[in-house]
Design goal:
Radius of gyration: 24 Å
Shape: elongated
Helix content: 40-55%
CATH architecture of the largest domain: 3-Layer(aba) Sandwich
Order of helices and strands: EHHEEHHHEHHEEHEHEHHHH
Largest sheet: 5 strands, parallel
Strand order of the largest sheet: 5-4-6-7-8
Structural class: alpha/beta
CATH superfamily of the largest domain: Response regulator
CATH class of the largest domain: Alpha Beta
Length: 330
């Protein structure tokens, strides 16, 4: 049964997918592409999956596929076919160097459909959009689903883009686990309702959070702003906090090294990392009395983890400057 809270009239489907209303009606009546619900007044109501299907069908028919061969295929089959085309386009773009490619994993069918719309495609130009995986919603349990298999030699997607109606602190670990399971470091979350403490905690953990509604132009700019993977020496906005980089033994060795110039920066930076890592773990393990306590400790853990990751990068620079070999944890 379709979710009655997430249904759209045919005009909204047309606006979101870029398919004219008249074409949607032909695809439905002649080819059976959709089976919308109907109100007592005989108005068609389409699901979010229908919106996604319409966008996929538009792109595939524009690429030369006949609607008669596509209409009754499910979303997974349509996505797979479009993915094959995007692989070819991405390889061609990589060879010519004419268009950068955006690699995405998307949570939310409505968001996935929006990313197929002409307005957003145009706003993202000249970037080529490649959605490697689409999930209807965040996994309910703590363990994310098995990542979608990709062809040999495929690049992993660069960005996890999540859309939720209500954002809760309990979803933080799920989002981070899903990102890391698919090899992603950068995360953008779009939400409509959320406690301020939850938003601040996710921001402190490296997640880029934006409240909806957001325009196509702003969404395109948001995606572009976190996609590049160039090393800047600092953690860019939208990048998840990395796990600990150095062991206690490595930090202790770094702190004990004597510099010929009597510079104590290696020792101070190593000691700061140890202290921040200890507080990060303490905040994560600290007991709490209620949800407000849990939010506070999660926020403190995220802040200390972010600072720890920054100082780990600083330590790498210090070690390179001093000519010291620094071994990272596997």
């Amino acid at each position: 049964m379709k979710d009655l809270q997430n249904l759209h009239r045919i005009g909204a489907v047309s606006a979101l997918s870029g398919v004219p209303v008249s074409t949607l009606r032909v695809w439905e009546t002649r080819y059976g592409a959709f089976t919308p619900l109907k109100t007592g007044g005989q108005h068609r109501l389409y699901s979010q999956e229908d919106v996604l299907r319409a966008g996929l069908l538009r792109q595939l028919t524009e690429a030369g596929h006949a609607i008669s061969t596509l209409a009754r295929r499910d979303v997974d089959a349509l996505t797979g076919l479009l993915h094959q085309q995007r692989q070819a386009r991405a390889r061609q773009a990589d060879q010519t160097g004419t268009h950068p490619v955006l690699h995405l994993t998307v949570v939310g069918l409505a968001l996935a459909a929006r990313l197929q719309s002409p307005g957003l495609t145009q706003a993202l130009s000249p970037w080529l959009l490649r959605i490697d995986s689409t999930l209807a919603e965040l996994p309910a349990g703590p363990q994310p689903p098995t990542p979608v298999a990709r062809g040999a030699g495929d690049e992993p997607p660069g960005l996890l883009l999540v859309q939720v109606n209500s954002l809760h602190l309990s979803q933080q670990r799920t989002i981070e686990a899903l990102a890391r399971a698919q090899g992603l470091e950068r995360v953008v979350v779009l939400y409509r309702f959320a406690p301020e403490t939850t938003v601040k905690t996710l921001q402190a953990s490296g997640v880029l959070v934006r409240r909806e509604p957001i325009s196509d132009a702003d969404l395109a700019e948001l995606i572009r702003s976190v996609q590049p993977l160039q090393a800047t020496g600092l953690l860019p906005t939208g990048r998840l906090i990395s796990p600990r980089r150095y062991s206690e033994e490595t930090l202790a060795r770094m702190a004990s090294i004597q510099s010929p110039l009597l510079c104590e920066c290696p020792r101070h930076v190593a000691e700061l990392i140890t202290q921040l890592a200890s507080f990060e773990q303490y905040s994560q393990d600290c007991l709490h009395r209620n949800e407000e306590d849990a939010a506070l400790h999660a926020y403190l853990c995220a802040v200390s983890g972010s600072a720890r990751a920054l100082f780990e990068q600083a330590l790498a620079h210090v070690a390179a400057h001093e000519g010291i070999a620094l071994e990272a944890q596997p």
